[in-house]
Design goal:
Elements lengths: L1 H9 L1 H7 L3 H12 L16 H9 L9 H6 L6 H12 L8 H7 L7 H5 L6 H14 L8 H10 L23 E4 L2 H6 L1 H13 L4 E2 L10 H6 L2 H18 L3 E4 L2 H13 L7 E4 H10 L12 E4 L3 H6 L5 H7 L5 E2 L18 H4 L1 H15 L6 E4 L2 H11 L11 E3 H8 L5
Parallel strand pairs: 1-2, 1-3, 3-4, 5-6, 5-7, 7-8
Length: 422
């Protein structure tokens, strides 16, 4: 299916080539044969896909109309095309790797994959920027303002100043013979505690034995990987693999799309194998509802608007599971935002953007929050704690109705329909 999708995006090239006159076609084919000189780096230990950077750099900016960093900054340098062009020139040593202005452009990306969604070549500029940031780490060029993230990982196993993973935490639960490893995300444990309590209430309601291993836990590594600390993220992957596999649980449940993507996909790409099955809570909840083990039968007479997290909607191509859960809850009405599903808009916190470009990140969060409030819903609901945090932070700067108590996670809505206290 993926091959068909890629072919359908590139079939326009066939007509383009066939419509060329003989001389132009010959020149194009000659250039194609010598193409590698346009995407070959002589830098030692350089691993970025310069071929894809070159393709993106030569594109007439077909995704720019939906590139949030470009739209909110109104700076054409930050278009996906121009970011790729700068990165390509850095990789080919036409721009020094230590050029501060070029480095800042590498961090002007939310890694939301809006570019990839519209790209005829199926290229993710965000992934390419993450690769480039990894090259900065090798050369000790990661901006100083990001060093504290690595230092905090060294100090307490998370990117937060105060350690969320402690034996004293209310979320430190270790039941004997646990079936489930509840892998609580850093943002969840620190900023979205009501969501974590709802998830724990759901597990207790189902009489599922679970563990959180807060005495041993670390961050999944996603924030570090996204800002360039790939080697640190790989170390965390090994630690998490050892802790999870040693738990002998059957399922790892995550409450964060970034955690799930790291544990399931990125770790696998690095050769780090997590033995238990990895699920997000929304998948787990739908499965239990369909099996009749969860019966959310108490009406929730509310109007909600659902925000699709970028990782689910575009990164993993999944948009329906949450909506299927909502359809099982009596009284609940979903009114869709104008941009939803695969055409969702980033919350502003993607790719560590709130650390590297805080003011623009808040501006992006406000834009998305206003889109979600268009139908005046009772609740704005998501399945990503980072998105939820972004909206909570954005509303502090909003002149419209406050939504502090109206930003919810899917788990909270389900727990409410089950009549659970959390």
């Amino acid at each position: 299916m993926e091959i068909i999708k890629k072919f359908s995006k590139q079939k326009w090239l066939i007509k383009l080539i066939m419509d060329m006159d003989k001389e132009d076609r010959g020149n194009m084919l000659a250039g194609y044969k010598k193409r590698k000189r346009y995407y070959t780096s002589n830098l030692p230990d350089f691993e970025v896909n310069l071929k894809n950077l070159a393709k993106c750099a030569l594109c007439p900016d077909m995704c720019g109309f939906d590139a949030p960093c470009l739209l909110i900054s109104k700076n054409t340098t930050l278009s996906p095309q121009n970011k790729s062009r700068l990165a390509l020139f850095m990789g080919m040593e036409r721009i020094p790797m230590d050029n501060p202005s070029a480095i800042s452009v590498l961090y002007s990306c939310m890694n939301c994959d809006a570019c990839k969604h519209w790209c005829p070549m199926d290229i993710s500029t965000g992934e390419l920027m993450v690769e480039m940031r990894g090259e900065l780490e090798k050369r000790d060029l990661i901006p100083e303002k990001l060093h504290h993230l690595k230092n905090r990982i060294d100090d307490n196993g998370s990117v937060f100043e105060k350690a969320p993973y402690t034996e004293e935490s209310e979320f430190n639960i270790d039941m004997p013979n646990s079936e489930v490893f509840y892998y609580i995300g850093c943002v969840s444990a620190t900023e979205r505690k009501s969501m974590v309590r709802a998830n724990i209430a759901l597990l207790n309601h189902l009489k599922v034995k679970f563990t959180t291993k807060f005495g041993d836990r670390n961050c999944c590594g996603s924030p570090l990987y996204k800002v360039g600390y790939k080697s640190v993220a790989k170390d965390l992957a090994q630690k998490n693999k050892d802790i999870i596999n040693a738990s002998k649980t059957k399922i790892v449940l995550t409450d964060c799309p970034a955690c799930m993507n790291m544990l399931k996909s990125t770790y696998s790409d690095w050769g780090v194998k997590i033995k238990p099955k990895i699920l997000h809570f929304k998948d787990f909840i739908l499965d239990k509802i369909e099996k009749g083990e969860l019966k959310p039968d108490k009406p929730v007479d509310k109007v909600i608007t659902y925000h699709d997290p970028c990782i689910f909607a575009r990164g993993l191509g999944e948009t329906e599971i949450s909506r299927e859960v909502f359809a099982k809850i009596p009284g609940l009405e979903v009114k869709e935002a104008y941009l939803h599903g695969e055409e969702t808009r980033c919350c502003g916190y993607g790719g560590g953007y709130h650390v590297t470009n805080k003011e623009l990140s808040i501006k992006e969060g406000l834009i998305r929050l206003d889109q979600l409030r268009k139908h005046s819903p009772d609740y704005i609901v998501s399945t990503c704690p980072t998105c939820e945090l972004s909206f909570l932070e954005a509303q502090k700067n909003s002149k419209n109705d406050k939504y502090t108590d109206k930003i919810k996670d899917l788990s909270e809505i389900v727990a409410e329909s089950l009549g659970l206290n959390f």
